[in-house]
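seq:
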Amino acid sequence: MAHQPPQLVLIDGSSLAYRAFYALPETIATSKGEATNAILGLAQMLTKLIGENGFRPTVVAWDAGHSGRREQYPGYKATRVSRPDLLKEQWPKLEPLCEAFGHINASLGGFEADDVIATLAERAKAQGRQVTIVTGDRDALQLVDEGVTVLATGRGVTDTKAYDREAVIERYGVPPELIPDLIGLKGDSSDNLPGVPGVGEKTAAALLQEFGSLEEVLAHIDQVKGPKRQENLREHGEIARLCRDLATAQRELPLELETADLPDGIPDPALLRETFRRWELREPLRRLEEALGGEATDAPVEPSGIEPTVKEGTAAAAAKLGKGPLAVAVAVPEAPEGALFADESDVHFAATADGIDVIAGVARSAAEVVEALSRRALVLHDAKALGTVPERIAHDTMIAAHLLDPARRGYPLEELALEAGVTVAGDDPAACDAVRTQALASIQQPKLAEQGLTELFEDVELPAIAVLRQMEQVGIRLDTDKLEEIAVRVRSETADLERQIHEQAGEEFSGGSPQPLGAILFEKLGLTKNRKGKTG
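struct:
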């Protein structure tokens, strides 16, 4: 039995990059303020593909021209706005991102990504390979064939719909090979292709179903229902042919890339992790780890490889350990059967091989350890969670992580440490956490200084920990009369604004519903809508 070559994945990088950029808020950025919404969105798309399909040879195609289409029709894509500045900033980073995923980037000067994909798909078919095309451009549905599937992106960055031949027919009423004919008749607003006036998608599909092709429609205009439609087809038949030709993918580009020679698509774990860390792509990395069972994260960047040496003692003995701040992690075990508390002798201490002093407490309560260390400055992760806040906090790694990256969704200690290249191995979970805390603090402190955040951290954030804990314990007092006064003022201002809007519109309407507002705007702009909702 002949060896079946692995499935080939072809991705329209330009299409997905634009979709990612517009799907995610422009405010998404790194802790240094670098815009990353397109980078994050594309990473999420690629992660989802790997999570669902595993590693596959993958080519990401990019636009590098218009394939001569603008020379044929100057209006081709003429209505598209220029690339937004924030997307321009991120664009040079997208190809390296794809390389980190183990993908091959491909483009050909003067040609569009669609044509690169069509050419590679034809070559792969000739080799008997299964092909999956990922794009937001519905023109690519013309490439659907036996063994060729299109994953069309939808809303957001991870919503996709798979199209085989039957799905294309079900959705558009015509088979894949007639998609260019369909576009020729109905036009394509995204590419600024006019088509035939008065012919929409359903009418175009019905004409192709009846006559078989655009050429047959134009050859039998006298048999088309409706004199106005006949007139439009006669007058705009050549435009329809031109639109069809412009929408037809070119499948014989002189690409040097050969589908038979592609690598297997397995990324370099170190490069992938380094890239994810560079752009602070924590959520895609987490999902990739889950999907691949750690395959992509076996080689952390510059791991510290700390292994704590654990020795037993009492909570009071911890106060005599070392001279500098102590890194502390406390675990309160479940009481053994028949006992209310664990014995104090169950408190454990850990000292690392490189001399960093830490204490890992397994005690009856966190308060017991905090009280014993009341005279020492402590380094902790989420000091407020201890319940009893220590008097002297030298560093809180969770608070520092929030200052360095306020847009992050969560700050789990092990995740933060792993991203910083800190790996800890040991059988005592509390001891490992204490070591992680100390190592992470030593990494965070110079970063806080570099960004000018040390004073804010030490003078505002750390003292606020005890205040916030006290607020949680005793609550806060609200002046309900003052709140009602504010509410009355806001309602009055809202009513005034609503009256001004109605005066400007010349009539009253529900401002909470977009439909009445939309109708007024159409009227003011001199536009109308027919019964099918089309703008005229």
